[in-house]
Every structure is written in C-alpha cells, then in structure tokens.
Amino acid sequence: MKNYQEWYDKTKSSLLRHPQLLQLMRVFNRMMTVLMPLAYLTLLGTSLMSKNLGNDFYAYILVPALGFVLLTLVRKWINQPRPYETWGIVPLLDKDSSGNSMPSRHVFSATIISMACFHASLPVGLILLVLSALLGLVRVLGGVHYPKDVLVGYACGLIWGILFFIF
After folding, report:
1. Residues near 123 by Cβ (< 8 Å), separated by ≥ 6?
2. CA 148, CA 75: separation in Å to the nearest integer?
3. Could you give the percent of the chain with pLDDT greater than 90?
4. What residue intervals traverse the membrane (predicted)?
5. 81-109 burial string, b = 16+ CB within 10 Å, else e?
6. Nearest alpha carbon to residue 42 among 120, 123, 133
7. How many CB atoms lie within 10 A of CB 69?
8. pTM of this prediction exceeds 0.85
C-alpha cells in the first residue's frame, strides 16, 4: 500500500480527536477476546447437553481447531510484517509481536466461531458474524493489521465454516 503511512496518520489523528471513540474501539477489541470464547463455550455446552450429541459436538471442536492450526501454519509460512514494523507508526492497540500479520488469526477465530454458532442458531450466528467483521475493522484502525490481513482472515473463516457447517 503506497500511501498507507498517510492514510494511517489521518485515521489515527481523527480517532485521537475523539477519545470516546478510541476508548470504545479498545474496549471492543478486548471485549471480543472474552465474548467469542464465551459464545464458543456456550455452543459446546448446549451441544453437549442436546440429545443429538454425536456429530455436532465433535464438529464444533474439530473444525475450528483444524482451521486454526492450518491458518497458523500458512501465516508462519507467509510471515508478513505488521504495519507498525514496516511503517513509522505507533499502533492504537497494544501489540508488540512481529510478523505473522497475514491472515489475521483473531478475525479468523471470531469468524469460525461465528460460523459454528450460525450452524446452531441463525440469529446468533449473524450477530456474531457482524461483530467479527467489526473486529476486523478495529484491528485495521488500531494499526495492528493491514486491510487485506483481516479480509483474508474473515474470508478463510467464512469458507472454512461453509465447507464444514453448511454443506
């Protein structure tokens, strides 16, 4: 991205002029690291207690786990630097790791959990998919991922979920 530095500087200064929005963005980013595991554990718990224990419960464990491992391997192979490593920016979200920016594992994880929940409950799944997309936006605005990182992470989660939960 040729003008990333300029774009991020404008975005960051806009967010810094609205401290409530910046705080909301940071709280949302942290909240998602609690909400998605809670949604996932709730899904596993309700699946475990249902009469149709067999297929769904094991699929809800194996599909996200296998996707997570495969995505992690691809990410390590690509090993793309993060925006704050390549450009002279200070991210708005706390992050100090290097490389492994693409695809976003946070967004993939949120999306595959959303797809599993979508399989169990259409309304809950749709809400979680919207929240996963918002997480991607927050990760980009926060300076820890490029837009393509979160788009690929989201797409991978959708495709993986469609392959295993919809078909």
Report:
1. none
2. 13
3. 87
4. 27-45, 57-74, 107-138, 150-166
5. ebbbeebebebbbebeeeebbbbbbbbbb
6. 120
7. 10
8. yes
Chain-centroid distance, C-alpha 160: 14
Tokens 């790791």, residue located: 97
List of residues 6+ apart from 48 with CB closer than 8 A: 57
Cα gap 11→2, rounded to integer Å: 16
Mean pLDDT, rounded, of the chain: 94
Phi, psi (deg, nearest 5) at residue 103: -80, 165
Residue 166 DSSP symbol: I
Q: What is the mean pLDDT of residues 34-63?
A: 89
d(CA 45, CA 50): 9
H helices within the chain, ranges in order?
A: 4-16, 19-49, 53-78, 83-86, 105-120, 122-141, 147-161
| Cβ proximity of 143 and 84 under 8 Å | yes
